[in-house]
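Weekly modeling sync, notes
Attendees: S.R. (lead), two postdocs, one rotation student

Agenda item 3: backlog of single-chain predictions. S.R. asked that every request posted to the team notebook include the full sequence so nobody has to chase files. The rotation student volunteered to paste the first one in as an example of the format we agreed on. Action items at the bottom.

Example entry:
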Amino acid sequence: MYSGVSGSFMGDRYQYPGDQGVWQVEETKTLLDQTQVPGITQEPALLRLDRSDDNEHQHRAGCASGFLAKAHHMKPWISLSAFAALAFVSSARDAGPMLHDHELPLLASPDFIKPLADSFSIAKGRWTPENGVLTVLDLPEEKHIPVLHHKVGLASATIEVEFRFDGPGSFLVGCDTDKHVGRVVVNADGLSIAEDSVKPSHTIAKLPLQVKPGEWHHLRVEWKGEEMAATLDGHELKAQHPFLGTAKARSWLAAGKVVEVRNLTIRGEKG
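Predicted structure, as returned to the notebook:
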């Protein structure tokens, strides 16, 4: 069994898939530090992944983003240049907690049969619960994608939901203070995490995936402190940024065009 490598470097992409997960590297100006890790060595402008015959090693890379890396029975080596944010991608479809060491208290689990509870507020678009599905419709005259607020500020959160695109679209889960703090974005090209200290949002981790319309997809989003993580159909992405540690006043869902939503749960703890 082998893990693999997937990264963006000066416009080139390397991918080395495996059944235990993959490595993903996004371009940045920061190189790995010189930490010696079994199975991983570094040369200038070169990341070498060496074979590890017997043991699985986990190492938090010495870069500013601090993403989780995993080495497991690597094939001999792959040369890469200009290293950036490193994100571990899990292949387990029933992935459990990513950032939390315990299950957070359940705050909301709407059945989408009855009207939404008062803790929810429709900011943009049309959100219609019916027969267990929340149908989201973009209203062109609003000139903004549909947004649904959950008016509870959470220092730590776990949001799980299933969604389905009706054609090209996007689906987002995020958190705010009086302005945006961070977000997880899903579109036809894959999964990404962004922080909102600047405009437009600053993408700090991304994972190319095929997200097919007309199919239900499972998304789990977590945040805690300066970290945010997401699992889309079993593929895991993590990110870290100081701005993500900003105190939150609410969470939100957003969608582009026509999207259906079901099985939403919001768990969390206030700061």
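Discussion: group reviewed the output briefly. Residues 1-94 have pLDDT under 50 and may be disordered.
Action items: rotation student to repeat for the remaining queue; S.R. to check formatting next week.
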